[in-house]
Prior knowledge:
The chain is an alpha+beta fold. The protein has helices at 2-13, 22-29, 34-43, 80-84, 135-140, 152-155, 158-168, 247-254, 277-287; strands at residues 52-56, 60-65, 70-78, 120-124, 147-151, 175-183, 197-198, 203-204, 208-216, 222-231, 244-245, 267-270. Strand 9 and strand 10 (222-231) form a beta hairpin. Helix 7 (158-168) runs parallel beside helix 9 (277-287). The longest helix has 12 residues, at 2-13.
Amino acid sequence: MAYIRLLYVVTAGLGYFYESSLDKWKKNAFKVNAEENAILERVSKYGIPQRDVILNYQDFQVSYDNQKRTPNWVLEHLTKSNLQTMLISKEDTQRFCFHSDPRINKMFQPDESDYEETGLYPSQLGDKDNHRSTEKSFNDTFNYSNTVPQNFAWQTSVWDRLETYSRYLTHCYKNVYVLTGPLYQPKKDKLEVEFQVIGRHHVAVPTHYFKVLICETNEDSIFHVGCYILPNKCDVVRPLHFYRVPLSLLEDNAGFMLFKDRQSRPVLEILGDIRDFNARRLVYMNQAGLMHVN
């Protein structure tokens, strides 16, 4: 129940509301009088354009941006018991490959050719190592709807440390919720945003990435929250706390509010840092019994 409750609060706060039926959308999203309803029926006679799509997978949820061909965000729920259930071994990974999601028009999805000779890699925002408990969950992470172009060297250094830290927190908390997505930020000396696109599908390459870790404590309605913003480029490998930012700054950059109703939202406390996690992550993961998802 805790998972369902927080999932509702977080996704509602993101401001996305989708229904498969236009009639349901009109009925639930608005309360209109007869005159307003007539106008709505007239202007939406042939449907309402939908650029962003919510995709529900077995173990995670994606908000997908058809225009940029990348997710807006990916939301995961991690528990230690799920991480310790490892049906798919690392040797089995070779059996899986990236593929399109049939629910999205192929013109709005990347494919393998988009990444050729770019030096970039389709990075899974819903990390595959978080979802090895079933073959379906693991395969879901290979949907292109779950990927963004990322520098491979960066992905296997600081970003990998942050992914591992997310899993380690399940040793300290019963439930850990992970929200991850791309950012497109201006350079410090310019008031304009520039970003690369790759391939024939013009897949957007983010300038930065964000990750929010929401950890459920034993006290009802109290959560420890840690927010991170990292550049999408090779850089000096720094401790994870170097990339920590306040929740308000992340919300301002990402363009959403995690907890929309500030009056009734849970109590949010700052997630404590483990300053030496980068240097001693093998020790920490071994102590947590999570070396297999290190």
